[in-house]
Design goal:
There is one protein chain. By secondary structure, the protein is mainly alpha-helical. It has one domain. It is built from 13 helices and 2 strands; from the N terminus they run ααααααααααβααβα. It has a two-stranded antiparallel ribbon. Helix 5 packs across helix 7 and helix 9 runs antiparallel to helix 10. The longest helix is centred in the last third of the chain and has 28 residues. It is globular.
């Protein structure tokens, strides 16, 4: 059993010049760079309520994953087997790729409620999970643990949505509760919290604040959505370059800077870019009455 959970000898014969690029592609879908790029595009060009819910899910499950990694400190497979060198010196259990992949793609399938969406999501999730084994970044125990925690996150969120106090809470209370969870995790962290913890907290704060202030709809012609996504993508890339330069110029505490960077990104996603796209006529100003509370939208 130990060999089954921790050994990767069975993976080596499967490696080939044809399959390796595909596995690198799948594993890219689970990294922070893709996720922080994908979520804003969905927020602008698809459905902001759906992607707000997805942002909350991803942030909470990523926080849980990082905390458990540092708590258990389970080593990754031997570095001699590794074909993915982006993981640094982080620990293996649970696999963040597996956990977040389950959350993102299965939640989107649930939101779409289409058979084809479940099939596509299943293929993507399976591809991401297998890529972590193929590239030697995780063992079987890691990906099983991450997958189960991803499923648990989805089930817990589905349950919370039906709590009356959650649905009736004012948006400010809801935002405060989410940030309190991040603060509690940061204060109880087994060691030094990674930089993306304050980054996610700042991002959440900016998006949750902006969601209530800037109302818009992507219920427009497809070409407008595609153009809005393209403009937003280019602007988001430029924002990252500006923030990178600003971080090099301002000698702030790294954790503080990551929190401010996340806040800037959140306000950009939920306020600045939607306002710009509405003024350009690519998105529609929201006219229909919205839920009275942020929690009702998330629920």
């Amino acid at each position: 059993m130990n060999e089954l959970l921790h050994g990767l000898d069975w993976v080596l014969p499967l490696r080939s010049d044809t399959l390796t690029p595909l596995m690198h592609f799948f594993t890219l879908l689970g990294y922070e760079k893709f996720i922080l790029f994908f979520l804003p595009l969905g927020y602008w060009a698809w459905n902001r309520s759906v992607f707000l819910r997805l942002l909350v899910l991803v942030a909470v499950t990523a926080l849980l994953n990082a905390w458990l990694k540092d708590y258990w400190q389970d080593p990754r497979p031997d570095i001699a087997l590794r074909m993915d060198h982006e993981v640094g010196d982080s620990f293996g259990l649970p696999s963040g790729h597996a956990q977040i992949a389950v959350v993102i793609w299965f939640w989107l399938a649930f939101e779409l409620r289409r058979a084809w969406a479940w099939v596509v999501s299943g293929v993507v999730v399976a591809g991401i999970i297998f890529s972590r084994l193929y590239l030697g970044a995780h063992d079987v125990e890691d990906v099983i643990g991450g997958s189960l925690l991803g499923i648990a996150t989805l089930l817990a969120f589905a349950q919370v949505r039906h709590w009356n106090w959650w649905a009736g809470a004012h948006g400010a209370w809801h935002q405060g509760l989410v940030l309190l969870v991040f603060l509690a995790a940061w204060l109880s962290w087994p060691g030094t919290a990674p930089s993306y913890v304050p980054l996610l907290a700042g991002l959440m704060a900016g998006v949750l604040l902006g969601f209530r202030q800037m109302r818009f709809s992507a219920d427009v012609a497809l070409w407008r959505r595609l153009l809005a996504a393209t403009i937003g993508a280019v602007a988001f890339i430029l924002l990252q370059k500006v923030l990178k330069q600003a971080g090099a110029l301002w000698p702030l505490d790294p954790q503080l800077w990551q929190g401010l960077r996340g806040l800037a990104m959140g306000l950009f996603v939920a306020v600045a870019m939607p306002w710009t796209l509405v003024r350009l006529g690519l998105l529609a100003q929201e006219k229909a009455p919205e839920p009275e509370t942020l929690a009702e939208t998330i629920a």
